[in-house]
């Protein structure tokens, strides 16, 4: 048992079973043992690889997307470019390089990063040292939101804690983490049903309540609806809501037992994009998408960007660029182009946003 597991067992002995959200929050954010707090988990040698780490084209296209949002906003003299959960800082670095194409945007923007991990803040500082920007770090989203804003978050919502409920003949009972007969962490159910959950309960179904993620999207949506701008959320998950337990743990690019190594494996959930879009609409923002990552990146000109970069590359570099780009848009139920979705919440006064226009319905005859 690792140190965090021992601490959790002690906590449960004293206070009784804990919610899934408390478990996730401690596994990821415990000040000493939390997964993101003590290490840089990315890349081939790490536990998982994200889109910005696969190809520079990802961040460059999102940088151009941000530039065109700024133009659509009427090119304000100052705008915050905010990234939530920036990892190694690679996405921001690539965005800023692409933003140079539009000097007015480059001069108007200030860079704001929302990051809780001291290790990753340091990593971001190093990555962005030569970018010409002077980033400002914030602990929480609401601290970063001020004035006209363009907000980007890749693989952030999947790291936010959620609660789970299981359908039983008595109604929804919360899924909790307690101890088994041998004193090890084990899943169980709350003794009493939770009457606050009003959705009908099919027996055995798992209902997830992503309250923290919904509030994160709502906070960004509320802000851009009032102050101007847009927020872009990219993550894995379905476009339509459904039942199911999506909690998963990953270590060294393989799935592992969710309870086996708390704080030493990445813990994520799938993002319910229909509900995230609803959260944005409910506070007065427009919602665009969700569309697949493939459709979004192709609509933004992935192919053209790949060709332009390849013309200046050696054959080996061109090969690497092509395979990276292909991985971002690959189809198949577990491939990045299809499993990953893109949702924007925006000021409703903005025109249709780039990247989402492939999904307009065909004209009716
Ligand atoms: N966007 C990056 C990293 C994704 S991993 C990429 O695509 O490579 C999730 C990121 O969110 C990490 O930087 C992690 O430290 C950060 N994070 C997790 N929980 C957070 C929270 N509650 N507030 C702010 N950042 C958080």
Question: What's the Cα radius of gyration?
Answer: 21 Å
- Tell me the CATH topology of one domain: Rossmann fold
Query: Whole-Å distance between the termini?
Result: 65 Å
Named once each, the bound ligands are:
S-adenosyl-L-homocysteine
Work out the number of β strands: 15
Question: What letter string, H or E per element, gives the SSE order?
Answer: HEHHHHEHHEHEHEEEEEHEEEEHEHHHHE
Derived from helix and strand composition plus strand pairing, the structural class reads alpha/beta
Neighbour order of strands in the largest sheet: 4-3-2-5-10-15-14
Name the beta content range: 15-25%
Shape call: globular
Name the average pLDDT. 95
CATH architecture of one domain: 3-Layer(aba) Sandwich
The main sheet comes to: 7 strands, mixed
- Oligomeric status of the shown chains? single chain
CATH homology superfamily name of one domain: Vaccinia Virus protein VP39
Question: Percent helix among the residues?
Answer: 25-40%
Q: Extract low-pLDDT stretches.
A: 359-365
Description:
The chain is of the alpha/beta class and 365 residues long. The chain has a domain at 35-161 and 210-237 and 272-346: Rossmann fold, CATH 3.40.50.150. It has helices at residues 3-15, 20-29, 35-38, 51-54, 56-72, 90-99, 103-108, 118-127, 141-144, 211-227, 273-282, 293-299, 302-311, 315-329, 336-339, and strands spanning 18-19, 79-84, 109-114, 136-138, 149-154, 163-168, 171-179, 185-189, 206-209, 229-236, 248-251, 254-256, 266-268, 286-292, 340-346. The protein is globular. Mean pLDDT is 95; it is low at 359-365. The site of S-adenosyl-L-homocysteine has 19 residues, from helix 4.
């Amino acid at each position: 048992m690792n140190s965090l597991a021992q601490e959790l067992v002690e906590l449960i002995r004293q206070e009784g079973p804990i919610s899934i959200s408390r478990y996730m929050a401690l596994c990821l954010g415990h000040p000493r043992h939390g997964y993101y707090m003590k290490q840089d988990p990315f890349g081939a040698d790490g536990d998982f690889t994200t889109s910005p780490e696969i190809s520079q084209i990802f961040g460059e296209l999102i940088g151009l997307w941000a530039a065109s949002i700024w133009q659509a906003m009427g090119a304000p003299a100052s705008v915050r470019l905010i990234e939530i959960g920036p990892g190694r800082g690679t996405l921001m670095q690539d965005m800023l390089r692409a933003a140079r194409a539009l000097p007015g945007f480059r001069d108007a923007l200030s860079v704001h990063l929302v990051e809780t991990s001291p290790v990753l803040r340091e990593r971001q500082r190093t990555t962005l040292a030569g970018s010409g920007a002077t980033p400002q770090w914030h602990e929480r989203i609401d601290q970063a939101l001020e004035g006209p804003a363009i907000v980007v978050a890749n693989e952030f919502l999947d790291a936010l804690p959620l609660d789970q409920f299981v359908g039983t003949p008595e109604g929804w009972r919360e899924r909790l983490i307690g101890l088994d007969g041998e004193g090890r962490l084990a899943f169980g159910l709350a003794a009493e049903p939770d009457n606050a959950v009003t959705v009908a309960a099919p027996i055995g179904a798992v209902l997830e309540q992503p309250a923290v993620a919904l509030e994160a999207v709502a906070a960004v949506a509320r802000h851009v609806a009032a102050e101007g701008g847009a927020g872009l959320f990219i993550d894995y998950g379905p476009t339509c809501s459904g039942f199911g337990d999506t909690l998963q743990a990953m270590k060294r690019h393989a799935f592992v037992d969710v309870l086996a190594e708390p704080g030493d494996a990445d813990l994520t959930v799938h993002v319910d994009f229909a509900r995230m879009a609803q959260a944005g609409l409910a506070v007065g923002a427009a919602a665009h998408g969700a569309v697949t990552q493939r459709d979004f990146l192709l609509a933004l000109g992935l192919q053209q960007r790949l060709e332009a970069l390849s013309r200046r590359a050696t054959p080996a570099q061109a090969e690497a660029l092509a395979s990276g780009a292909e991985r971002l848009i690959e189809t198949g139920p577990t491939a990045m182009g299809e499993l990953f979705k893109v949702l924007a919440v925006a000021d409703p006064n903005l025109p249709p946003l780039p990247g989402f226009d492939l999904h307009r319905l065909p004209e009716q005859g």
